[in-house]
Amino acid sequence: MIILAIVKEHKRLGRVLPCALVMLTLAVPVRAQEQALAEKAHHAKELIAAGRPAEAISIYRELVRAMPGNPGLIMNLGLALDMSGDKRAAIRQYQAVLKLDPESFPALLLLGTAYLDVGQPSLATAPLEKAVKLQPANFDAQVNLAEADMAMEHFAAAASRFEKLSQQDPSSPKVWYGLGTCYDALAQTSFDELAEVAPGSAYWLYLVAESRLTTKQTYSAFYFYKQALAKPPSLRGVHAALAEIYRATDHADWAAVEEAKEKELPPPDCATEKLECEYMAKNYLAITSDAGKDAAALYWKTRAYNQLALGAYGQLGRLPPSVEAHELRAKIESKRRQYAQAAKEWRAALDLAPANPYVKRELAMALAQSGSLDEAQALFQELLARDPGSASLNYFLGDVLRNAQKPREAIPYLLKARAADPNFLAVRKSLGLAYMQTGETEKAIPELKAALPLDEDGSVHYQLGRAYQVHGDRELAREMLKAYQEMQSKNQEGNKAVEKEVAITPP
User: Which secondary structure element, helix H or strand E, spans residue 217, and what is its range?
Assistant: First the structure.
């Protein structure tokens, strides 16, 4: 009897999953003429333990052919495929194991995880639910099921699972990250409902201002807070927020005025303003359980979810360094458009998980956004070698090459991305621009036309107009260039209006 203990680390959807220790008992014949098979199995085990799973695949295939119907060997083949990055092939092996042994907990757990890895959470749910039923106390299975709920945007259900898991293991960074992500999503859902019920209201304006302040858009936040002051009801906290902005912009005298105004406001009447009183008492879960759908209820629900998310992320920040903590900080920096700083956080995450393809991909994207195109190119090439059919990876690499003024190198990757997903409009735009760089205007025209819905600043209209000019279609060229000029003019007027509106003015 040979015991294989294989430690497997997964990464998917921005979260690092726990290591799953799978112990399988293999029945290997002991007759002398079959001793070679046992030696091969041992060698394959050593390859996997050494981090060389791809080299073990052919050995396990040979063993499975020699001993068909052995669930342990099939499982090990699946693990080798999984660890080498071929998730879909691994799924087929796990399914084969379950046909032989429907109650195999390792196969159920790893099948569910593999489905999550390939972006099919709806298929992951059934095996993970069965795994949890077989072993209710298994932490990995419960985390994976919570992640499946989150991937399917069942955020309330996922948050409930993560909340229980946080009590079971408060030292788990993936649990706090998942919980914070779910609460963030629920806050966005409540805000979207508020935007439908009371767009432009004081409630809506306050929340917009708060979000702008969070991402250090100080002037924009100031504008929305001032707008909120001009509309009923008079919300507590607006004057205090303005005071914070005044102080941050070296207007201490104006800040004192706003602080005085905040103190003049009466406390809430808890008989009629119950949710605000719950908020002040930090009873956030009680607020989120309220069924109200009016503007006030949605406002307090959004703020409560925001506080719950901050609480979860705060717990994550108090834990030792983790991939999840660096990921959170990287995403915050990206929202602030501080891409070099985001790349620094992704690099720190990669130090903790050097074989993690998700982290490599996010680092490559941050590097591309910060202008470090050579580094981004190298990472995308490495990732594409493992998943050559990926539409997104072919697009990212092609777009990086195009931005690096290597359009001829970019075009084959962009064509492959377009073939994989013809409705991927960003691919059509990048391919059209690459053709313009190589002077292939006839090929550029259909790509740029397809990408027009993405055009926010008129640049695609401009390039399409140029292509029509070269092609001799003067009327179409005039039409596109006119649209470009109108979009540019509108954007300039909008920018001037914004500059005027966001000036910091006295109370």
Answer: none
Q: How far apart are CA 205 and CA 222, in angstroms?
A: 11
Better-predicted residue by pLDDT, 279 or 25: 279
Confidence of residue 495 (pLDDT cuts 50, 70, 90): low
Chain segment 330-372, per-residue pLDDT in tens: 999 998 899 999 999 999 999 999 988 889 999 999 999 999 9
b vs e for 132-153, b when ≥16 Cβ sit within 10 Å of the residue's Cβ? beeeeeeebbbbbbbbbbbbee
DSSP per position, 378-424: HHHHHHHHH-TT-HHHHHHHHHHHHHTT-HHHHHHHHHHHHHH-TT-
Instruction: Give the chain's count of helices (H) and strands (E).
Output: 26, 4
d(CA 404, CA 464): 21
Question: Can you spell out the DSSP letters for 429-472?
Answer: HHHHHHHHHTT-HHHHHHHHHHTGGG-SSSHHHHHHHHHHHHHT
Residue 257 CA to residue 260 CA, distance in Å, equals 5
- pLDDT tens digits for range 378-389: 999 999 988 888
Mean per-residue pLDDT for 390-416?
97
- Count of C-beta atoms within a 10 Å radius of residue 241: 21
Which pLDDT does position 34 carry in this prediction?
66
* CA–CA separation, 283 and 308 (whole Å): 10
Confidence of residue 492 (pLDDT cuts 50, 70, 90): confident
d(CA 308, CA 179): 9
The domain spans of the chain are 2-150, 186-228+264-318, 422-507
The 3-state DSSP class for residue 191 equals: helix
d(CA 120, CA 113): 10
- Answer whether 2-150 and 422-507 agree in fold: yes
| CA gap 299, 302 in Å, rounded | 5
What are residue 3's phi and psi, to 5 degrees?
-100, 120
Q: What is the CATH number of domain 2-150?
A: 1.25.40.10
Q: Which residues contact 422 (CB under 8 A, 6 or more apart)?
A: none
Q: What is the pLDDT of residues 266-278, one digit of tens each?
A: 999 999 999 999 9
What type of residue sits at position 200? G
In the predicted model, what is the mean pLDDT of residues 123-149? 97
**Which of 355, 356, 367 minimizes the C-alpha distance to 399?**
367
Query: 85-94: per-residue pLDDT in tens?
Result: 888 999 999 9
Instruction: Kindly indicate the confidence band of residue 9, based on its pLDDT and cuts at 50, 70 and 90.
Output: very low
Neighbours of 417 (CB within 10 A): 27
Q: What are phi and psi of 26, to 5 degrees?
A: -105, 130
| Candidates 1.25.40.10, 3.40.50.150, 3.90.70.10, 3.40.1130.10; CATH matching 422-507 | 1.25.40.10
Work out the end-to-end distance of the chain between its first and last CA atoms, rounded to an integer number of angstroms: 80
pLDDT, residue 48, reads 85
